Amino acid sequence: MNTADKDISANELIERYSDMVYRIAFSRTQSVHDAQDITQEVFFKYLKYVNSGKSFNDEEHRKAWLLKVAMNTGNTFIKAAWFRHRASLTEAADVAESMEEKSEVYYAVMELPEKYRVIVHLFYYEELPIKAICDILDLSETAVKSRLHRARTMLKDKLKEVQYEF
Amino acid sequence: MNFKDEYKRDFDNIKPDDAFKKSLVNQLNKKPVVRSYKRVYANMLAAAAALLLVVGVGYYAKTGISSNSEFDYNADYEEITKADNEADFITNSETITKGDDMAAGTENVTIETEEGTLSQFGGLAETPGGIILYENWYGDAVTDEEIYEVFVSLISGKNLDELYVSDSELFANNNLLSKTEMKEVIEIVSMGMPTDEEFEGDKTFYKAVLEDGTVIRFVISDAGYIRINGRSAVFKVEK
Q1: Does any CB of chain A come closer than 8 Å to the CB of residue B63?
Q2: What ipTM goes with this model?
Q3: Within 10 A of B143 (CB to CB), how many other CB atoms are there?
Q4: DSSP assignment, residue B165?
């Protein structure tokens, strides 16, 4: 990688973080193709960032930066009208493409509005503390807690046949 | 069953395939040349153009290419101190000051009243003093849930300056809440969930004053129902 970030190679960067970036992109867009586009764009932005001479304090900083950029990059896709139309058409096809069978939890989360899905993903999958989620999403702590609370309530309602521990 | 475990198990299988990862590594290892970004920038330009189109259409739809838009340039504001009770709107904005030509159509025009029974929601509002242009506090939020979320954000963030409580809508003998009391009210409000139930219970009235002077009134009942002034949607605190 032609980069000033000498402590991590392109290979290592992609190995460590491409899954993470892809997953947050997919949880928002529910589209394999859009998730790939967003992922690619995020890493191009990373390259530009480090080539400008900037670096990260530590891995936590790098991870948070990537997640934030993934969110911002995803916003552009999601807000575009063409995306809204396209997502509804490709969603079923893309989900069917995934090889493994998914549980009712997956479908319940995917049915949530996007702003709740992303909080659920950052909290439960990435296991980020509330403060970190606030920084990534640029929301107050109360707003994040409020959305998490609402998401749980909606999920409990969708998954009421099985008692899930949250 | 544990929700987190199930969710993680499902999402562990969601990842880019190896071919995609390999392609990404190759692209990152190339020397930065303009043409490497062509596809990326083409996508970005297409997305930006689409976004601009959506925003542009939305902006004109909101402000209106109509006779109403002349009020953007109307500097004839009057100081209004009392609302006409016949005007059956309820506002959340409270202070109007005299504008000048340069201020015409600018933001933060509100109407000062004892009771705040003035028009609501952005755009134009009819009052005894004439039609006045002012901004709403919830921007371009449309649904009740979106508006409620903006409301929660505003009062739970740094924007909130003061919070008053009263046993009546008039706030004649209102009390300013302490920081601790404010925090408790904010906590309750942030737990509100939309409900189809009717608003019930004895009401306590609140008036939130934001740092920019915007006022948002809301009511909480002892049964846990919440409603923002001027909105019919009811929210409920789940126990």
Answers
A1: no
A2: 0.84
A3: 10
A4: E
